[in-house]
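For reproducibility, we list the full input for the nicotinamide-adenine-dinucleotide complex.
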Amino acid sequence: MTHILIVGSGVVGLATGKGFAKKGHDISYCDINPQTIERLRSQGLRATLTHDVHWDTIDVVMLCVSTPSVEGRIVLDYIEAAALDIGRGLATTSNYVTVVVRSTVPPTTTERRITPILERASGKRAGYDFGVGMNPEFLRAVTSEQDFARPWITVLGASDQHTAELLDRLYASFGALIVRCTPTEAELIKYVNNVYNAVKISYFNEVHAICQKLGADSNLIGATVARSAESMWNPLYGTRGGVPYGGACLPKDTVAFMQFVQEQGFEHMMLEATIAVNESLAAMVPAAPSPDKIEDILEVVRQQDDMAVEELTLELGKRPSVIL
Ligand SMILES: NC(=O)c1ccc[n+]([C@@H]2O[C@H](COP(=O)([O-])OP(=O)(O)OC[C@H]3O[C@@H](n4cnc5c(N)ncnc54)[C@H](O)[C@@H]3O)[C@@H](O)[C@H]2O)c1
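The corresponding predicted structure, in tokenized form, follows.
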């Protein structure tokens, strides 16, 4: 049994704590908001203000505080203040505590901003006296506890071997695909995941406007494309970074559809940007060949459910010709 301290007991903190409690771990919650502490205690949960934590019994800290964006800039003040409190707590214990960032933070924040604060405040060294990890959360607020209990992917960014092994043990029984990486890669996965979702939604919203003008059912088109478009079902498609699209279809069809929508009096900003990005890349890097052996691709797709990402990466290396 591991004693986990949840720092920041909001949506993600509570889902994390309750999820690990169901796996038999010992959970304590803390927060800066006294009303939150009272509410948690009234539910029978062990909760304290950050300053009242007994550090001697803590094995893992899950850092789940808010990281809001205000006027176009992310506010890291809360997570940095929490890191300072945790660092001061680390100074008071001889335990090897592992601090895991779960908040969504810009790439490099865990290693370049949080770790130095922990080291300065504790007088200890990361990787020697305490561990540091980054384990982003993919849950949705409305179904937070169910999502935490049944993740479809688990991303474990670790700065040191001890943290990597500890996170592996904590998450082994959740049964999701596990991706092991560095904290910066974990931070990138979370942002790229969310931005990709946003890009997809904006793209289909532009398509929706075009469909409405033509009297076509945009839901039918969206749902069919979600099944048919290779980028949705082929995990290798378009994921080899730095290579522009090429081949017989994508360059000519993107230009033709752009012309069509312009003639209809629409501005298709997502498509315009897509063509511009590809053209500037194609000026420097040759386009990739189009898919050739469909059987190879389908085999990879068939296997993907059982396949760890490391193996997928290996497949990518072995089969450069099946990409794009
Ligand atoms: N809500 C979601 O669906 C969701 C999903 C994935 C990731 N995230 C990310 O997880 C993080 C937390 O999100 P949330 O929705 O749980 O936020 P939340 O606002 O529900 O909870 C954050 C908690 O942190 C507390 N807090 C702030 N400063 C603190 C400090 N210095 N010490 C201790 N506690 C402090 C707040 O009082 C609050 O209770 C954010 O980075 C968010 O982007 C949220």
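The pocket of nicotinamide-adenine-dinucleotide is lined by residues 7-13, 31-33, 36, 50, 64-67, 78, 81-82, 103-104, 137, 139-141 (CB under 6 Å). Residues 209 and 218 are 8 Å apart (CA to CA). Both points were considered when choosing residues for closer inspection.
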